[in-house]
Amino acid sequence: MQTILLVILLQAVIFGAFCSFIAKEKNRDSAGWFFSGFFFSIIALLALIAIPTLDKTTSFKKPESDLYCKPIPRISSKQRALRLLYIFLGLVVLVILIILLEK
After folding, report:
1. Residues 6 or more apart from 29 whose CB is under 8 A from it?
2. Burial bucket for residue 20 (CB in 10 Å: 0-12, 13-18, 19+)
3. From the first residue on, what is the mean pLDDT of each consecutive set of 10 residues in the chain (103 residues)?
């Protein structure tokens, strides 16, 4: 049992390190891709191979018009309290349904 866990952990670290190396070569976030490779192994590696290399000189440009920069609407404390109440009531109903369905 311990050898199986050791093999799985070793495989996860190897995929994580390999994904991190490839991500660094493609100018991507190496730490994020390490964890992706660690948890998703071959799927993360295939996804990393499929994405294009980022150019180091590429920067994100701000849109010329303010069409895309709309202000975030603010909600009042009363609306916030009502939303929390609705969420709470929904969870209570869900728990009651689960209890009734188990009987």
Report:
1. 23
2. buried
3. 86 92 90 92 90 74 60 79 87 87 79
